[in-house]
Specification:
Elements (H helix, E strand, L loop, with lengths): L2 E7 L6 H10 L6 E6 L14 H7 L5 E4 L9 H13 L3 E4 L5 E2 L6 H41 L10 H12 L4 H8 L3 H9 L1 H12 L8
Parallel strand pairs: 1-2, 1-3, 3-4
Antiparallel strand pairs: 4-5
Length: about 220
């Protein structure tokens, strides 16, 4: 009888070492680790993942399957509950690191079965709801960033904050527009616009500074 940890590693903070350490800290003695890397749990069934497929061939009656949480076992409510029930029918015990939950098919008492199945259903539904909420929040964040990038902010100034400060300082010291343009590389017209209305020139600069370009969009 073996204790196998199944891990799904899709982000930096879900690294394999961390998940194994969490399981060991929770009291599990892990004989083997099976892990899928770079796989979305929301879009891919366990049986369709490269390493997830191995679990269906590897697990035997009496083995224990350890997962951080039930969301590791499927992409949605139906998938998670079907997977857990499949393994229980095979005589495999499923245990979670979070809250130390145990699911097995050993009981024959109908009341205990009902409680167990209700708990499985609740946990699977909660996992799906959390996944959908996270995905929706990510989409909203992406759309918000896109909106910031596409919102009209006027013509981009030809000067940055440091150049603007130089122009203002030189004006304060009595330098002429032509001399400032030569020193800063700006056009004489730009220097004159800054001279004639520093407040507006500063606002135009602030609009572009407030929304940095996201290289991932």
């Amino acid at each position: 009888m073996s204790t196998i940890l199944y891990a799904r590693v899709s982000t930096i903070d879900q690294n394999l070492t961390h998940q194994r350490s969490q399981a060991q800290a929770a009291g599990f003695t892990i004989d083997e680790v099976v892990a899928d890397h770079g796989v979305s749990g929301v879009s891919t069934r366990l049986a369709e993942r490269e390493e997830g497929k191995r679990l269906f061939d590897k697990l035997r009656r009496g083995d224990t399957l350890v997962v951080r949480w039930v969301d590791r076992l499927g992409r949605n409510y139906q998938d998670v509950t079907d997977t857990i029930r499949h393994f229980m029918r095979q005589g495999v015990v499923i245990r979670t690191v979070i809250n130390n939950m145990t699911f097995d098919g050993a009981t024959t008492d109908p009341m205990q079965e009902a409680v167990r199945d209700a708990l499985i259903a609740f946990m699977a539904a909660s996992a799906q709801a959390q996944a959908e909420a996270t995905k929706a929040a990510q989409r909203a964040g992406i759309e918000a960033r896109k909106g910031d990038q596409t919102r009209y902010r006027g013509k981009k100034p030809s000067y940055d904050r440091a150049t603007f400060r130089t122009v203002v300082d030189m004006l304060a010291n009595g330098a002429g527009a032509s001399a400032i343009a030569k020193a800063t590389g700006l056009s004489r017209q730009t220097v004159l616009r800054i001279r004639d209305n520093q407040a507006d020139a500063k606002k135009a600069l602030a609009k572009w500074e407030a929304v940095p370009v996201d290289p991932h969009l």
